[in-house]
């Protein structure tokens, strides 16, 4: 055999060895890619299921521990997990959530719990190419903490546009006023016993005024008993007061409800949270009637100047809205603004609402369309739930 043939055979042998090594490398990469990808999908799916289970379980804090555990089982099963399998390790704990430290502490007394932690480990994730390298399966874990969140008491004043334009129909065939009444009632129904609620409306024809006859009017005082406010909301009709839209007058009337509180809350204790004050104003039109500007200015002490309200100075309706929203927010009162329909959507109302903070939206626009009634209802309900509702914190 010639030297050339020997070298050729050696080269062929080397190529076979290299090919075998390369194939092992390719299989390894395939195993890594396929199994790693499936692992990530499995982790994402498990996390979503655990999040859903935690949110479902937190609703059972008003029931008992058995109901809490059952809700976890039901949600995991609904998401395709066999809770009877030995591969699935589920731990459900109740306890308390420290908002400042962002720490969950498991508790021993169910009735004092305000948070739930759900931990799930799935040891049954299959390996597709892993057995080539002796790996039969993988494990993934997920944890979620849900809490009832803030229990800060709230004083909420609802301010409703009662101008004649509220008789326009929405997509469900009911008028804007009828849908607003239903939505405002749903919001009040979401409040907790420690929350108080009052009502103001606009535009109201004040016979004591001259040119400025269209304004806002307080209707019910802040009260823990929501009955008076709910009854008064139910009594409102389309165009209950008059035509014309004095949004600033509504803002001023809402502020009056807070400032004229006949039964202020008892003194706050050292460990008691300060109550949160909120005004929720809803309108379906552009402001076209002015309110006298607050005096001495639109800061934290601004109030309505004394009558009579004559033709001079000539107040501007847009400026009135800005100044009265400023004096409300300067008092640390949160101002939600809900606008309904195309004619009410303007930068003026966006700027009137409180600035967004902590992912809280204070301006809400409900556009005309097939789901306008449902959207209006959801906006009011969401405000009513506020920070009291369950949410994931970890």
In short:
This protein is α/β, with parallel strands linked by helices. It is 36% helix and 22% strand.
The CATH architecture term of the largest domain is 3-Layer(aba) Sandwich
The total number of structural domains is 2
CATH domain topology of the largest domain: Rossmann fold
Give the full name of the CATH homologous superfamily of the largest domain. von Willebrand factor, type A domain
Helix/strand class:
alpha/beta
CATH class of the largest domain, named Alpha Beta
Biggest sheet statistics: 6 strands, mixed
Instruction: Provide a count of the helices.
Output: 8
Shape: elongated
Terminal Cα span: 74 Å
Compile the SSE list and pairings.
Layout: H1 3-58, H2 65-78, E1 88-98, E2 103-106, E3 115-126, E4 137-147, E5 154-161, H3 176-189, E6 196-205, E7 214-223, H4 227-235, H5 247-259, E8 276-283, H6 317-330, E9 334-340, H7 347-352, E10 363-366, H8 372-385, E11 391-392
Parallel strand pairs: 5-6, 5-8, 8-9, 9-10
Antiparallel strand pairs: 1-2, 1-3, 3-4, 4-11, 6-7
Explained architecture:
The structure is a single chain. With 394 residues, this protein is of the alpha/beta class. It folds into 2 domains: 7-147, no CATH class; 154-265 and 274-392, von Willebrand factor, type A domain (Rossmann fold, 3-Layer(aba) Sandwich), CATH 3.40.50.410. Helices cover 36% and strands 22% of the residues. The chain has 8 helices and 11 strands. The protein has helices at 3-58, 65-78, 176-189, 227-235, 247-259, 317-330, 347-352, 372-385; strands spanning 88-98, 103-106, 115-126, 137-147, 154-161, 196-205, 214-223, 276-283, 334-340, 363-366, 391-392. A 6-stranded mixed beta sheet has the order 7-6-5-8-9-10, sandwiched between helices. The longest helix has 56 residues, at 3-58. The chain is elongated and about 90 Å long.
């Amino acid at each position: 055999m010639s030297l050339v043939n020997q070298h050729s055979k050696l080269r062929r042998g080397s190529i076979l060895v290299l090919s075998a090594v390369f194939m092992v490398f390719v299989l390894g990469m395939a195993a890594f890619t396929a199994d790693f990808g499936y692992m990530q999908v499995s982790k994402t799916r498990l996390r979503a299921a655990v999040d859903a289970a935690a949110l479902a379980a937190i609703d059972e804090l008003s029931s008992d521990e058995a109901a809490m555990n059952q809700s976890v089982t039901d949600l995991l099963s609904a998401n395709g997990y066999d809770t009877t399998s030995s591969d699935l390790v589920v731990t459900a704990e109740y306890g308390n959530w420290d908002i400042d430290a962002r720490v969950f502490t498991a508790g021993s007394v169910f009735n004092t719990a305000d948070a739930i932690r759900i931990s799930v480990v799935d040891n049954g994730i299959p390996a597709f190419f892993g057995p080539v390298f002796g790996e039969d399966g993988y494990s993934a874990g997920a944890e979620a903490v849900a809490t009832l969140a803030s229990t800060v008491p709230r004083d909420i004043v609802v301010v409703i546009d009662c101008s004649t334009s509220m008789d326009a129909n929405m997509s469900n065939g009911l008028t804007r006023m009828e849908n607003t009444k239903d939505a405002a009632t749903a919001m009040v129904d979401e409040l907790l016993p420690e929350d108080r609620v009052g009502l103001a409306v606009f535009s109201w024809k004040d016979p004591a005024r001259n040119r400025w006859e269209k304004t806002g009017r307080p209707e019910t005082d802040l009260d823990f008993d929501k009955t008076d406010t709910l009854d008064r909301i139910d009594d409102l009709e389309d165009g209950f007061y008059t035509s014309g839209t004095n949004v600033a007058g509504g803002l001023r009337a809402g502020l009056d409800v807070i400032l004229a509180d006949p039964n202020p809350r008892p003194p706050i204790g050292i460990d008691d949270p300060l109550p949160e004050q909120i005004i929720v104003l809803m309108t379906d039109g552009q402001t076209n009637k002015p309110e006298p500007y607050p005096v001495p200015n639109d800061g934290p002490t601004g109030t309505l100047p004394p009558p009579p309200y004559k033709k001079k100075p000539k107040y501007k309706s847009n400026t009135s809205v800005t100044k009265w929203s400023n004096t409300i927010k300067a008092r640390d009162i949160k101002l939600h603004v809900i606008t309904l329909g195309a004619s009410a959507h303007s930068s003026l109302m966006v700027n009137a609402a409180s600035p967004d903070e902590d992912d809280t939206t204070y301006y809400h626009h409900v556009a005309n369309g097939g789901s306008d009634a449902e959207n209006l209802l959801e906006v009011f309900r969401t405000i009513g739930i506020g920070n009291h509702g369950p949410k994931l914190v970890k």
